[in-house]
Amino acid sequence: MSKGSFYITTPIYYPSDKLHIGHTYCTVATDSLARYKRLSGYDVMFLTGTDEHGQKIEKKAQEAGVTPKEFVDRIVEGQGGILDLWKLMNISNDRFIRTTDDYHVKSIQRIFRKMYDNGDIYKGKYVGKYCTPCESFWTESQLIDGKCPDCGRPVEDAEEEAYFFKLSKYAKPVQELLETGTFLEPASRVNEMINNFIKPGLEDLCVSRTSFTWGIPVDFDPGHVVYVWVDALSNYITALGYLNDKYDDFDNFWPVAHHIVGKEIVRFHSIIWPAMLMSLGLPVPQKVYGHGWLVIDGGKMSKSKGNVVDPYVLAERFGVDALRFFLLRTFPFGSDGNFSNELLINTINTDLANNLGNLVSRTTAMTEKYFGGTLPEDREESEADSELIEMINSVRGRYEKQMDAFQIHLGIDEVFKLLQRANKYIDETTPWILARDESNKARLATVLYNLLEAIRVSLILLTPVIPDSCAKALDQIGADADCRTWESAGKFGALPLNVSVRKGETLFPRLDTEKEIAELEKLQHKKSVPASEPVLPDVTIDEFARCDMRTVKVLSCEAVPKSEKLLKFSLDDGSGTPRQILSGIHKFYEPESLVGKTLVAILNLPTRKMMGYDSNGMLISAVKEEDGKEQLHLLILDDTVPAGMRLC
Ligand code: MSP
Predict the structure, then answer these.
(1) Domains held by the chain: number
(2) pLDDT tens digits for 205-252?
């Protein structure tokens, strides 16, 4: 019987770049909590997704020469994209929302209108600062050294007609919410919110933009698009069916919502989000948990620093479970954690290869060696067993307490205390000595049975963290379905007395630390060199053939007046009539250096106006961003190639 409903969410990720180990950390942690709740008998809804609107995405798409939707599709659905990463990492989400999904778009328009109709949204003029990478508005007083207080990057002046949400009206109820109960955890984040944001005075929030278009239009004023955070935060309710017909889970799951978010977005989740919900007349979530960041050498991971850790590299080399385990075992969930390759390898060796893997392989090997794989039913108990058995009986309660408080690392630690105790029990009981004398058979069987039980209970409790490895190991120790349940993890003795084991493959081979570190450094460097964008979703050969790409010769090329970037080309495309194309590559080429060159252009794109000139196609170039700098190389062919040849 279900213990009740439980709704848990990750933030929805920006598909502006490939995700890194920090994003993976957040999703894997939430996954382990969702799995734990399912295992322990709850009816769970686990939601993740992507946050696809906003100026940052619009800019990136423009740079890539594709539409924003094409751009996000590639990062979400393309090979090596977000969906692939979650599949690889064995993420058990029940639902995946994209903020470009139709039903979400419609719900957002209704949500916006509802807050407008109840008088909480009004029209005004926005004058302030905007941080494009963070998609955040700031007032002058919130800036640190004139820069974005979240990411430290420069902000831009912003002034435009805009709608505002009466956030100030909700300052008091939000403060009360933060101060009472356990809405926001860890507790340290509560003071941060109150002192940094509420006490200085909550200003009304600008909730629409007119200076770009990649967003959800306000349906009663379509020149405005809804502020991306209003769009994004609402995903938690639209994905349950709030103000749409797509789903019907709102009544069941909304009152039991738990948001797991990184520390820098706690502000949005614990101040703006409850205020929005209060405005909509909805209950607030049960909990917002702000976890720490994975950092490198104490600093943030970033593409421009070139220190982004790719989860694919680690998962391919060490296995998904080893990576999941490392992330959850090593770093206290509420605090920052310093990632290093050495720590990863040491954790795999100490905990997985030694404490867990070795215990499983020794115990199954001894059961095979001394009893042909099946224990006899005779037993001989001893006082020496009582501590281990007591731990087996009580570990689930201690683990549950930690997991319910989202202290995943401490939950895992409880299991490892049991595993360490079991390893010590082998040294104390010396089964290899017992095995020398036939009269000790019952005692030896008891010792091995107790060890198998310690392993069994540990594996059940580790299942939310390393699901596949636990399933394999439970097979090895002969645990059938009844011996894998949450109920059976609460009590010693579920395995049959005459249990049969099947020694299998080594679960976690021991790693040579120095060699692995050297290899990893090479790999991480190598992997960071090729363009890190995921490969696009497949196109058919017919779709590809619809792109008319041809060789073109540059007849003339000049800079466009008043434009820093644009060059205007007149090109021989083989048709006899010169073709005009504009290209934003002045930063990379002087116009005169290109005259006479043979290039490649796609000809059948719709005509675009750029600085008043028509551009009839696009020149093909290779583009890459490295260390925050963009590199671009036009595709220049050998001069012997004539103009007007099709590329196929
Ligand atoms: N789109 C917003 C969230 C909207 S939720 C309604 C966003 N997206 S994000 O892709 O930038 O970040 C998603 C999550 O990844 C955040 O919780 C963020 O804290 C987390 N992480 C990003 N880098 C991280 C680390 N280095 N370490 C741990 N978590 C990190 O914010």
Answers:
(1) 2
(2) 999 999 889 999 999 998 999 999 999 999 999 999 999 999 999 999
